[in-house]
Each structure stands twice: as structure tokens, then as C-alpha cells.
Amino acid sequence: MSLRTSASLSSSMADNLAKQIEEGVIPAGSKLPSIREYADASGCSKNTVISAFEMLTASGLIEPRRGSGFYVAQRAKAATEAEESGVLDRAMDTVWLMREQLQVKPDVLNLGEGFPPIEWLEATRLDQYHQRVVRTGVASLFRYGSRYGYLPLRQSLQQKLSGYEIEAAPSQIVLTHGANQAMDLVLRYFVRPGDTVLVDDPGYYPLFGKLKLSGANIIGVPREVDGPNLAELERCMIEHRPKLFFTQSVGHNPTATDTSAAKAYRILQLAETHDTVIVEDDAFADLRPRSLTRIATLDQLRRTIYVGSFSKSVSAALRVGFLACNAALASDLADVKMLIHVSSSEYSERTLAAIVSDGHFLRHTNQLQEKLRRATATAKTALKKLGAEIFKESEQSMYLWASLPEWTDSMKLAKAMLDRGVILAPGAVFSPASERVSAYSRFNVAYLADERFVNALRAIAP
């Protein structure tokens, strides 16, 4: 065996043991098998094992004890715990917040939650629709669907969009695996490494992660109480010639703001002048009044890609979203979808089609909006009692964007509250410049009345 091969085997053995120690498979304080036993079990020389043990000793993971052998160091456990703590400190970011929202922790109050409470959505009774879905065409449930998605659902979406005065034929609508896949398709089609993309700042934080993966140059446009800062938007378009501008006109996440009609018109003018495509994310459409201004309504999908979702009004588990745009672009994006994912889930799309075509769905969304109005009023009262500054006092919004007195850094606040069993969504997470200190946090209005929030806040008062 060559020296190079032996060194490679030693490194591989050391890496494998280190992983087992760090994951707790071999606990701290455990005695390792002897060098001879390791050599016999692995079929390698004792020198190879000795080299591996020396590497682990040098890294502090194991320690020799005279006359007894090698043991997993107690400080290895401490180092692992410190590392996890460090990760947590660093990870008040996109992936951390997404992980927290996907977990159900009964003993934790999640004020950073992105969705309505489950009990608000249970009225849709997903279990009632299975038989209806099966009866509408069981054979198709065992095959890939259309690249555009299930036609009857696209026809229902055509009617839904007409309620916002957006004219879109079924050929202009592509069903996706949630709104996030719709954004993924747009990025795959338009963005190459180094391209500039504009986003709301603060804005939809998972989008920032997607853009980073795409290698895009991300530039935030400051969000004001009536929409994007137009002067900064124009400056960015002149200076950077962005391909895309991602924005939320209605029920903006996280600020609960709506873009005014005047600003929406000006955004379109700037996009036309500087050849920028507007991607309008309307994930909260079912929770907000239809009368609010949408850029796609003014533009009629000429330079706008409209993205929608049912995660907030029906179920995130169905994973059905859609995009609407001009017909030629819709065909191209449907091809991109087919190349990457073949198709979206026709079973989920059929289920959603059955739900939205049911007369109960309109009553359900009306009830959702009423619950949201009551929760928003309660949440504003709770925050004001604490002396909070609310960015925009919406009458009906899933979130409130607010800062608490004496806490100028919401990241520090979030870390302190986490120790008290309360999860917050600190403002820095919602900015493409995540290193920037923000006093603001995003609060889910449905949970702000919980006494655990006030009790935890009092316990950490500076």
C-alpha cells in the first residue's frame, strides 16, 4: 500500500469517526475500540488507524488515556453544543426562519409564523373532496398532467383574475407547485449569474435565497407606507438596468402596506422606459379586498407576471400556485416547468378546483377576512399597550411590522425571546442586506394576544 493511499484511508477513517462523534452516535466519554480491533475490522494496517486517531486527537475530538486506550473527549460535546449555539446565533436568517415555520412546536409561541392558524382553515375540509376528485377522472391521476396544469382550475383562475379586472385566458396561466415554484421558473428563464434583480426592502425573504442561488445581483428598493420609494426605484433602474423587479402590491409581506394607484402607474412607466419585467406576488389575495390596486390590472399582463397562491386561504400542503402573463411567455415558462419538474400535481390541482368551484369557498374567504379584521384590531391594541411603533396600521393584514421600545436591534430581541420559548421574525431577515440592523419585527396578528408574549417580554426587559 502506498503512502498516499494510506493517508487517504486515514483521513477517511478520521472523517467517519468525527461525524459519528459530532452527531452523538459515539457519545462523549465513550471508549473507542483498540487500534488492533479497528485495524482488524476495517482490513487495514495499524499504522492507518494510528494516523486517524492522531488526526482526531489533534482536533480535540478524542483523547488518549495512558494504559487504557482512546476516549471521546468530554470537550467534544461542549464544542458541538457551542457550535450549534453559534449556528443558531448566525441563523436568524432565511433558512432558519423557514425551518421554524415548518415545525410544529406546541410549547413554543411562534409570532414569526407565516400562515393563518390551522383552525381558520379547517373549514375547507379537504377530506370531503377526495371522492369527488377521483370521480372526475381516476385514470389521469396515474399520469403526468398538462405542462400548463389542470384546465378546469385554470378556467376557474381566469374567473378569479377577472374579479381583479385582470383579463387572462387559460393559455396565459401556468399552474405551479406553490407560488415559490412560480418564482423559480421566472428566475430560471430570465436570470443569469451577475444579472441585477430589484426587490422590495424589506420584502419576501425566501426570494432572496433563491436569487442568491441564481447568482443574481440583488438590490433592495426601500418600502414606504404606500409602496416602493419611486426615486430610489428610478435610480436603480437607470444605474443597474435590472431584468426583474419583484414586488407585492397588496398585503405586502412583511410591512402590511399596499401600493397606491399613483405609485403603481409610475412603476409601470419606469418599467416600460427601462425594459424591466414586474413580478407581482399576490399570495394574500384571498385575505385582502378585491378593490385594492394591482399592477397587473393596470398593465393587463403585458409587462407584468402575476403570481398567486392558495397556501394562505386553503392549505400550504396542497402546494398549488400559479403565474399569469402574456401567452408567449406563459408557453415558454410552461416548457421550463416541464424540463425541470415534468408537471405539477394534477391530484392537488383537481382537489383545489373542486374547492374553489364550491359555493362554500367564497363564504370561507369572507369568514377568513372577518377573522383577520378582528385579529388585526386585537394585535394593534396589544402592540400599542407595549408602546410599539407600528409601521402601517392596516385594518386587515396577516402581519404587522412593528418595533418595540428599548429594542433598537430586533435580532437581539429575537435571540432573547427564543430563550423564553417565543419565536420572532427579526427585521434583518427581510432585507437583502441582512447585516443591517433593524428595530422592526414581523408579527403574525393571529398570535399577538397570547400572554406568553407579554410575559416573555417583561422577563427580558433591558
UniProtKB/TrEMBL annotation:
Q: Which residues form the HTH gntR-type domain?
A: 7-75
| Superkingdom of origin organism | Bacteria
What InterPro entries does the database record attribute to this sequence? Aminotransferase_I/II_large, HTH_trans_reg/aminotransferase, PyrdxlP-dep_Trfase, PyrdxlP-dep_Trfase_major, PyrdxlP-dep_Trfase_small, Tscrpt_reg_HTH_GntR, WH-like_DNA-bd_sf, WH_DNA-bd_sf
A Pfam match: Aminotran_1_2
Keyword annotations from UniProtKB, A to Z: Aminotransferase, DNA-binding, Pyridoxal phosphate, Transcription, Transcription regulation, Transferase
Q: Which GO terms describe its molecular function?
A: transaminase activity
Record keyword Cell membrane present: no
Which family is it part of? In the C-terminal section; belongs to the class-I pyridoxal-phosphate-dependent aminotransferase family.
Supply the name of the protein: PLP-dependent aminotransferase family protein
Task: Record the organism.
Answer: Paraburkholderia kirstenboschensis
